[in-house]
Amino acid sequence: MATGTVSPRARIADRRDDSPVPGKTPATRETRRTWRPTATADPLTLLGVSGSRGDLLRYLTVHPGERVYLRRLERLFGERSASLQRDLRDLTQVGAIRRVEPVEGRRVEYEVVRAWPLWGALRQVIATLSDPPTLTREALRGITGVDAAFVYGSFATGTAREDSDVDVFVVGERVDRARLHRALSEVAVLSGREVNPNVYTPAVLRERLTQPASPSRRFLRDVLAGPKQWVVGNGEALAPLAAAAGVARIP
């Protein structure tokens, strides 16, 4: 995945080791603010939005160019079709999404109406009420080939500041990198932060963890052993790799 600028304030980079990100300028002490993961419930409940509707709105915000259909949404969210049908119907009625009628017996699909007058405001609300790890979870939801993924660094330790990046670690055999890039680019735009994905296949990760001469070995061991917020899977998926590298436990 290539590095590219996605907005004046946010850039997505694909880092494969512990090398520094070029062109970074530290913020002054006066402009820094600490972010800590304190919410225990979905902040969208403050607006009377919860359950499947909140999940659907966040998903559409992070994947605005993607067409969705009922069965796929059921698999993604584990929700009953009745509640999702109601959410799709209501969002269609207010003009937020539109039905794409089936052709030759294909399924009914839905897509975001970006020209809807309230779309920009809705994106802003979702971005404000969703911390970067939550947005990252929605970005990776349903992306092919991702076995495990987590946010590490300052957003996992609760020490993130106004200028902090979002560091994402992704492991998978055949990750759909193009779709991953698009989704994480949306996270960068919504959060106003640089997103740094580190993407590895299990084989490459094992090699770099077990080769003493690997320049990224220490970095990878520290990341696996350190604090993290899981966005896909959990530590069990990476336990064999960690054990081979001598990492006793993945939190």
Explain what this protein looks like in three dimensions.
There is one protein chain. It contains ten helices and eight strands. A four-stranded mixed beta sheet has the order 7-6-5-8. The chain is of the alpha+beta class. The chain is globular. It folds into two domains: 43-124, Arc Repressor Mutant, subunit A, CATH 1.10.10; 131-244, Beta Polymerase, domain 2. The chain has helices at residues 51-62, 70-77, 81-93, 119-129, 132-140, 154-157, 177-191, 202-210, 217-225, 239-244; strands spanning 4-5, 11-12, 97-100, 109-112, 148-152, 166-171, 195-200, 228-232. Helix 5 (132-140) runs antiparallel to helix 7 and helix 8 crosses helix 9 (217-225).
Mean pLDDT: 81
Strand content: 5-15%
**Order of strands in the sheet with most strands:** 7-6-5-8
CATH C-level class of the largest domain is Alpha Beta
Backbone structural class: alpha+beta
β-strand number: 8
- Taken together, the total number of domains comes to 2
Reported CATH architecture of the largest domain: 2-Layer Sandwich
Please report the number of helical segments. 10
Order of helices and strands: EEHHHEEHHEHEHEHHEH
